[in-house]
């Protein structure tokens, strides 16, 4: 129903011409048996030869008109359905873009791909094929019934009554098929996601020699899909022969009762002949309604899933009259901030004030909440308690697009698009000139390796930067972040795959070229990467347990000092040996 209200109804004007064409074709089809009746009763029985030419000409005209309008009917219906499906696909894609991070934490890619591809295709089939046939058969049914009642109400009534059990069975079949199609749609998504995950992780599978396990997993999913299809086939084969039998029975009723009416002189032979055509049309309609139930059941399942997405609103949205400053300075404050994912509290009572232009380094054990803390700045997740302020304004009051457009992030997991190196860097800022492209690549220590490739900046790389080393991918991701030239830069463990020397050069470049107002966050594990920061935060179990600059933290002789000692112990020992 939602499909109808949201997509089909607004196209109602486009349906006028194809439906009119359809009606013209159906009128032609419905008139043909009537003309045959006239031929039999008037020309052949009564020998009225003058009518023969006229009736044959009429039959010819009807066929020609039908052929012309059939073209419009088919073609225009196809255009409308393609249009509607395009709108559904675009709406789905646009809607998915609005969802918050946590939605994607709980949803797998294969499932979403199924919604955009298979489910949208089923809706397309329903409209282009199903809806057209439904309207067509409904009109056929109504017109044929009207003519039948006009010719002989007794025989028409008998035929309609004989068709009632078929209609009933069709409805029961649809009810039985619906849940099966829902399960089938779920299973299609499961197959997609199993295949998608395997292909995305194929290197891991091969490295661990887990091909057999993966094949087995896929075969099981496929077997389940097969079983569901078999179940559907069983349901169909339980009902369809019965529907066929009843259909033939209704024909027999018509022949017996019609023959009797002809014998007693209630109807002419021509009427009986016309009736046999009309009843075949009615039976054809009933069969078609039966077949359409399958498609309708399939469509119901797919449309339900599509509308679950389309009707969902993101939990993180900008308010009306939100804050949209022209420039962002980068003053960031966390006030009593706590964060919870599902049921787990991962940040507890965080308080920090970071003046614009500071460089903040975050250290801490794995899982201590470093990424989670940084995720709050762009409002990728909402706080449980407290508030995060950027330039003195709670980020919940900010226009999300303005806030995020003024930030650059390098995530822990590097993702590169299947595109050229230049386009990957320009992803964050399409406006940058070729000179700036070179400049940010140099800053990110990526220029030398890019220019050593045969196609340089035009080199095509795979979705995951195939053909590039981990460190090269990270450097491209950093160049992409720098290209945005924003006043908030977040590097979440972005140099972990670089050797110490490259990391040192890169961080030095960042410091030297840094726009003095840019606030920079660096999550790092090496003292050499963090020691020059204005503020160093040390995190443990969702708390900031130490903060200060390098000297202050060394004096505290706490967590930071211990790491410093561990990392520089070898150096000190070596120094003492040399001395
Ligand atoms: N999207 C998420 N959904 C649920 N729990 C999460 C999510 N992201 C992180 N966590 C959990 O939150 C805690 C903090 O994770 P976070 O990634 O912030 O730590 P981290 O200090 O950045 O770790 P690492 O140094 O290993 O990257 C962990 O216990 C982690 O399991």
Oligomer: single chain
> How does the overall form come out from the CA principal axes?
elongated
What are the bound molecules? adenosine-5'-triphosphate
Structural class: alpha/beta
Our count of domains comes out at 3
* Overall number of strands: 12
CATH fourth-tier homologous superfamily of the largest domain:
ABC transporter type 1, transmembrane domain
What do the pLDDT scores average to? Answer: 86
Number of helices: 19
CATH architecture heading of the largest domain? Up-down Bundle
Question: Distance between the terminal alpha carbons, to the nearest Å?
Answer: 85 Å
Which strand order does the major sheet show? Answer: 6-9-10-3-11-12
Describe the largest sheet: 6 strands, mixed
What level of helicity do the residues show? 55-70%
What is the C-level CATH assignment of the largest domain? Mainly Alpha
What is the name of the CATH topology of the largest domain?
Answer: ABC transporter transmembrane region fold
Taken as a percent bin, the fraction of beta residues is 5-15%
Radius of gyration equals 36 Å
Question: Which residues sit in consecutive blocks of at least 5 with pLDDT less than 50?
Answer: none
Protein name: ABC transporter ATP-binding protein
InterPro entries: AAA+_ATPase, ABC1_TM_dom, ABC1_TM_sf, ABC_transporter-like_ATP-bd, ABC_transporter-like_CS, P-loop_NTPase, Type_1_exporter
Membrane topology: Multi-pass membrane protein
GO molecular function, one term: ATP hydrolysis activity
């Amino acid at each position: 129903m939602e499909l109808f209200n949201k997509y089909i109804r607004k196209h109602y004007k486009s349906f006028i011409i194809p439906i009119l064409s359809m009606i013209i074709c159906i009128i032609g089809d419905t008139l043909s048996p009537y003309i045959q009746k006239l031929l039999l009763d008037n020309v052949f029985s009564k020998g009225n030869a003058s009518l023969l030419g006229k009736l044959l000409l009429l039959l010819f005209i009807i066929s020609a008109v039908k052929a012309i309008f059939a073209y419009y009917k088919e073609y225009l219906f196809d255009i409308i359905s393609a249009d509607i499906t395009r709108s559904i696909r675009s709406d789905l894609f646009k809607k998915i873009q609005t969802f918050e991070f946590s939605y994607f934490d709980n949803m797998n890619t294969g499932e979403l791909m199924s919604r955009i591809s298979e489910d949208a295709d089923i809706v397309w089939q329903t409209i282009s094929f199903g809806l057209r046939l439904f309207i067509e058969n409904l009109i056929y049914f109504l017109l044929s019934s009207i003519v039948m009642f006009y010719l002989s109400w007794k025989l028409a009534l008998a035929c309609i009554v004989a068709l009632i059990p078929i209609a009933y069975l069709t409805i029961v079949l649809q009810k039985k098929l619906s849940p099966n199609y829902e399960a089938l749609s779920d299973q299609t998504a499961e197959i997609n996601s199993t295949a998608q995950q395997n292909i995305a992780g194929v290197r891991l599978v091969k490295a661990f020699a887990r091909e057999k396990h993966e094949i087995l997993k896929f075969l099981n999913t496929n077997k389940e899909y097969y079983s569901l299809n078999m179940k559907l086939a069983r349901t169909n084969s339980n009902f369809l022969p019965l529907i066929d039998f009843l259909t033939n029975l209704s024909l027999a009723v018509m022949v017996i009762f019609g023959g009797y009416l002809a014998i007693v002189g209630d109807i002419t032979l021509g009427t009986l002949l016309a009736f046999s055509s009309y009843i075949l049309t009615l039976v054809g309609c009933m069969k078609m309604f039966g077949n359409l139930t399958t498609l309708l059941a399939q469509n119901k399942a797919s449309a339900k899933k599509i509308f679950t997405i389309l009707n969902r609103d993101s939990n993180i949205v900008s308010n009306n009259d939100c804050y949209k400053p022209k420039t962002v300075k980068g003053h960031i404050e966390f006030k009593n901030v706590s964060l919870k994912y599902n049921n787990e509290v991962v940040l507890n009572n965080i308080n920090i004030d970071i003046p614009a232009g500071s460089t903040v380094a975050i250290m801490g054990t794995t899982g201590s909440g470093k990424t989670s803390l940084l995720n709050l700045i762009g409002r990728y997740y909402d706080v449980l308690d407290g508030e995060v302020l950027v330039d003195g304004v709670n980020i919940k009051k900010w226009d999300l697009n303005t806030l995020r457009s003024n930030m650059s992030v390098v995530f822990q997991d590097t993702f590169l698009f299947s595109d050229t190196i230049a386009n990957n860097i320009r992803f964050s800022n399409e406006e940058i000139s070729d000179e700036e492209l070179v400049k940010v690549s140099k800053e990110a220590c990526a220029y030398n390796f890019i220019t050593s490739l045969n196609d340089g900046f035009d080199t095509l790389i795979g979705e995951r930067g195939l053909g590039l080393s981990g460190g090269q991918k990270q450097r491209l991701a950093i160049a992409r972040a720098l290209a945005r030239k924003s006043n908030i830069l977040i590097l979440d463990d972005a140099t972990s795959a670089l050797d110490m020397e490259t990391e040192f050069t890169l961080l030095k470049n960042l410091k030297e070229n840094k726009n003095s107002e840019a606030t920079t966050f660096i999550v790092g594990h090496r003292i050499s990467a963090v020691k020059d920061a204005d503020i160093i935060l040390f995190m443990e179990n969702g708390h900031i347990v130490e903060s200060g600059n390098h000297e202050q933290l060394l004096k505290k002789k706490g967590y930071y000092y211990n790491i410093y000692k561990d990392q520089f112990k070898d150096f000190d020992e070596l120094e003492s040996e040399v001395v």
